């Protein structure tokens, strides 16, 4: 039997081009030349017997065959990286304190932390859920080892590892989005999700009122599920029982927000470095393609955006 071997670097290039849509940016990120990246993708096309990308203007986008190959590539690369980490650091142990808002603890981190625990079974991760602003203060003071937070306007430092698209969300059978003034369920003052929601409604000339203030995503979800309010969250938090409101004059398109990863400056713990590297890698490579985040828990009916009105 004549077996075909796929170079792991080909899969890495495929994954990066799928994320960036650009040979140039992929070459920069992977420290390779543009012709080398192009050649790798051409060889992968030949091996697969199909075109994995097509051009959409100046951007490269996956074909249906490309999406299938990428799904396997993501799994292969995850296992490859997990194996190398496990073999290179078998003796790492200790406790790491990871701080993050409960939104990310629930919808971004579970599958990544599961991979980390398999690779480093002797490391204990203590999860500390709080709002982004106090977490940044805690990591700067060395009270926690690592923080994954939403970038606020006054934050300094940190590494951008992901972007979250903000969306308007209402209950699956709710009519709250049609009410005047619009009832809102929001995080406390000083949070950028809240700031963007209010700012965009003000620009649109839409009247609003606060129906719920909660420091946790569970409180916002309760207000949405009950039909008492509309909220603004990252699209990854859209679950069964919720619907996204299609952008319109009354509900302007919201921006993406940056997720920052911090590590306490003075920490020398190998366990903290290992977790920081894992989070940097898995959150970054899935910034757009979302291959190692929580599975989509939405039911088919909840996946359809809801037109305003």
At the fold tier of CATH, the topology name of the largest domain is D-Maltodextrin-Binding Protein, domain 2
| Total domain units | 3
Low-pLDDT parts are 285-309
Q: Could you tell me the number of beta strands?
A: 11
Overall 3D form: globular
N-to-C order of helices and strands: HHHEEHEHHEHEEEHEHEEEHH
Main sheet attributes: strand count, strand direction, barrel closure: 9 strands, mixed
- What is the C-alpha radius of gyration, as a whole number of Å? 21 Å
Strand content: 15-25%
Helicity level = 40-55%
Kindly, what is the distance between the CA atoms of the first and last residues, rounded to a whole number of angstroms?
61 Å
Q: Give the number of helices.
A: 11
| Structural class estimated from helices and strands | alpha/beta
| CATH architecture label of the largest domain | 3-Layer(aba) Sandwich
> Under the CATH scheme, which class of the largest domain?
Alpha Beta
Explain what you see.
It is a single chain. This protein is α/β, with parallel strands linked by helices and 309 residues long. It has three domains: 8-87, Orthogonal Bundle (Arc Repressor Mutant, subunit A), CATH 1.10.10.10; 91-162 and 257-285, D-Maltodextrin-Binding Protein, domain 2 (3-Layer(aba) Sandwich), CATH 3.40.190; 165-256 and 297-303, D-Maltodextrin-Binding Protein, domain 2 (3-Layer(aba) Sandwich), CATH 3.40.190.10. Helices cover 41% and strands 22% of the residues. It contains eleven helices and eleven strands. The protein has helices at residues 8-20, 23-30, 34-48, 64-88, 102-107, 110-119, 132-140, 192-204, 217-225, 270-285, 300-303; strands spanning 53-56, 59-62, 94-100, 123-129, 146-150, 159-171, 182-186, 208-213, 230-234, 242-244, 256-263. Strands 3, 4, 5, 6, 7, 8, 9, 10 and 11 form a nine-stranded mixed β-sheet that branches. Strands 1-2 form a two-stranded antiparallel ribbon. Strand 1 (53-56) and strand 2 form a beta hairpin. Helix 1 crosses helix 3 (34-48) and helix 4 (64-88) packs across helix 6 (110-119). Mean pLDDT is 86; it is low at 285-309.
């Amino acid at each position: 039997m004549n077996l075909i071997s796929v170079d792991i670097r080909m899969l890495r290039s495929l994954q990066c081009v799928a994320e960036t849509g650009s040979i140039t940016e992929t070459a920069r990120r992977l420290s390779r030349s543009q012709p080398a990246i192009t050649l790798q993708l051409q060889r992968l096309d030949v091996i697969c017997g199909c075109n994995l990308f097509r051009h959409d203007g100046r951007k490269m986008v996956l074909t249906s065959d490309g999406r299938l190959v990428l799904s396997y590539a993501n799994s292969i690369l995850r296992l490859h990286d997990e194996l190398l980490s496990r073999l290179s650091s078998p003796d790492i142990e200790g406790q790491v304190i990871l701080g993050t808002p409960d939104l990310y603890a629930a919808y971004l981190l579970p599958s990544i932390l599961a991979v980390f625990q398999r690779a480093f079974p002797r490391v204990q991760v203590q999860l500390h859920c709080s709002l982004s602003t106090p977490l940044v203060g805690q990591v700067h003071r060395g009270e926690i080892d690592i923080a994954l937070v939403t970038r606020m306007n006054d934050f300094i430092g940190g590494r951008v590892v992901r972007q979250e698209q903000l969306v308007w969300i209402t209950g699956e059978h709710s009519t709250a989005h049609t009410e005047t003034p619009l009832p809102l369920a929001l995080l406390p003052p000083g949070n950028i999700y809240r700031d963007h929601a209010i700012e965009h409604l003000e620009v649109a000339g839409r009247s609003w009122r606060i129906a719920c203030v909660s420091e946790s995503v569970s409180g916002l979800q309760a207000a949405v599920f009950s039909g008492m309010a509309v909220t603004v969250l990252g699209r990854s938090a859209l679950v069964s029982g919720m619907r996204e409101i299609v952008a319109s004059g009354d509900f302007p398109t919201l921006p993406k927000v940056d997720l920052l990863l911090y590590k306490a400056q003075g920490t020398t713990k190998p366990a903290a470095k290992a977790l920081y590297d894992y989070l940097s890698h898995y959150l970054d490579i899935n910034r757009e393609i979302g291959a190692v985040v929580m599975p989509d828990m939405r039911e088919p009916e909840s996946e359809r955006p809801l037109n305003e009105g």
